[in-house]
Design a protein that fits this description.
Elements lengths: L2 E11 L5 E11 L3 E5 L6 H5 L16 E8 L2 E2 L5 H7 E4 L12 H11 L4 H14 L15 H13 L5 E5 L7 H18 L2 E5 L3 H7 L2 E6 L1 E7 H5 L2 H6 L6 H11 L11 H28 L1
Parallel strand pairs: 3-8, 3-9, 6-7, 7-8
Antiparallel strand pairs: 1-2, 1-4, 4-5, 9-10
Helix pairs in contact: 3-4, 3-5, 4-5
This protein binds adenosine-5'-triphosphate (ATP) and magnesium ion.
Length: 299
C-alpha cells in the first residue's frame, strides 16, 4: 500500500525553547483514516502543521526548529513545489480565524484556487460548486468575521476542499459545533473518504467521534505513546489514564453492562455500533423466546 504521509524521527522545538515533538515517526497509508489523540499541549497541532511544510524551520545552530523528515507520497515536503503540496495536502486549522482572512467568503475560497493557477472562469465555477456542496450558497458576499463559529468552520473546510487535496488534515474539526453540524461534518468526512478515497488525518479530543472518523489511532504526548485500532487503544485503561484521555460514552456504558454480566465480544464505540449490538441481542432473545415456547409446549 502506498504511504500518503511518512514522518521519520521528527523533533520540533519552538524558538522559545519549548520542545513540542520528540522523535515522532508515523505512517499514513493512502485512503486511510487516522486519528491523532493526546492531551492539551501534546503537540498535535505542531505535528499537523509539518504535513504541508507550514512549520519547517531549521534554526539548528540555536537548537530550535525542525529535525527529521516528512514525506508526502514518497517525496520530501521540503523539495515539493508549493503548488504540488497544496494539491496533495489540505489542512483545516484548529482556529478558523487563522484560515479566513479575505473580505468575503467568495474571496476566501477563491484565494487558494487562484494560487493553484486556475483561470478566472474555473475559479468562479469551483467556488460556486463548493458553496453548493457545503450548503453555503448565498454566503458569497458575506464577511467571514461576521459568521458564527460553526459557519466559519464549515467555510474553512469548504475552502480547503475546493482545492481537491488527496489528503485532508483536520485539526479539532468538531470542536464547538452544534449536534446537527457535528453530525453533518462527520458524515461529510466519511463520505469524502469512502467515495473519493481521500486520506483523512484528524487531531481530536472528541472521543465519541473517533470511531466514525478513524480506522487507526496514534496517541501523541510529545512522543508517540501508542498506535493501534480504535478498539485496541480504548481497551487500554492504563494508557488512557496516563494520557489523560476519556473513553467514548457508549463504550463506558457497555463496560458497566459488562460488569452486570452482559456478554459481548467487542464493546461498541459509537451509537451506531451499539444499535447493531442491541439488534443482535434482540435477535438472540427472539431465538431464546422461541426455544422457551417450544419447551413449554413439550412440558
Ligand atoms: N508558537 C508557539 N511558540 C511557542 N510554543 C508553542 C507555540 N505553539 C505551541 N507551542 C507549545 O508547543 C506545545 C505543543 O502545542 P500544540 O499546539 O501543538 O499542542 P496540541 O496537542 O495541539 O494542544 P491542544 O489539544 O490544546 O490543541 C505546547 O506546549 C505549546 O504551548
Ligand atoms: Mg491543537
Amino acid at each position: 500500500m502506498k504511504e500518503a504521509i511518512t514522518v521519520r524521527d521528527l523533533s520540533y522545538t519552538y524558538s522559545d525553547g519549548v520542545k513540542a515533538l520528540e522523535d515522532v515517526s508515523l505512517a499514513v497509508n493512502e485512503g486511510e483514516r487516522i486519528a491523532i489523540i493526546g492531551p492539551n499541549g501534546a503537540g498535535k497541532t505542531t505535528l499537523l502543521l509539518h504535513f504541508n511544510g507550514i512549520l519547517h524551520d531549521t534554526g539548528t545552530d540555536t537548537g530550535t526548529g525542525t529535525c527529521g523528515e516528512i514525506e508526502v507520497f514518497g517525496k520530501s515536503v521540503e523539495k515539493l513545489r508549493m503548488e504540488d503540496i497544496i494539491r496533495a495536502v489540505g489542512i483545516v486549522f484548529q482556529d478558523p480565524d487563522d484560515q479566513l482572512f479575505m473580505p468575503t467568503i467568495f474571496d476566501d475560497i477563491a484565494f487558494g484556487l487562484i494560487n493553484l493557477g486556475l483561470k478566472e472562469d474555473e475559479v468562479r465555477e469551483r467556488v460556486e460548486r463548493t458553496l453548493l456542496r457545503f450548503g453555503l450558497s448565498g454566503y458569497e458576499e458575506r464577511c467571514p468575521h461576521h459568521l458564527s463559529y460553526g459557519e466559519k468552520k464549515k467555510v474553512a473546510l469548504a475552502a480547503v476542499m475546493s482545492m481537491e487535496p488527496r489528503i485532508l488534515v483536520l485539526d479539532e474539526p468538531t470542536a464547538n459545533l452544534d449536534p446537527r453540524n457535528r453530525a453533518e461534518l462527520i458524515a461529510t468526512i466519511k463520505d469524502l473518504n469512502e467515495r473519493e478515497g481521500i486520506t483523512v488525518v484528524t487531531a481530536t479530543h472528541d472521543v465519541n467521534a473517533i470511531s466514525e472518523l478513524a480506522d487507526r489511532v496514534y496517541v501523541l504526548n510529545r512522543r508517540i505513546i501508542a498506535e493501534g485500532s480504535v478498539q485496541k487503544i480504548f481497551s487500554d485503561a492504563e494508557l488512557l489514564k496516563d494520557s489523560n484521555l476519556e473513553v467514548p460514552e457508549v463504550f463506558a456504558l457497555f463496560k458497566v453492562l459488562q460488569s452486570f454480566g452482559y456478554n459481548c465480544e467487542e464493546l461498541p464505540l459509537s451509537i451506531n455500533a451499539a444499535r447493531e449490538e442491541f439488534e443482535e441481542m434482540k435477535k438472540n432473545n427472539a431465538f431464546i423466546n422461541s426455544i422457551l415456547k417450544s419447551a413449554r409446549k413439550l412440558v
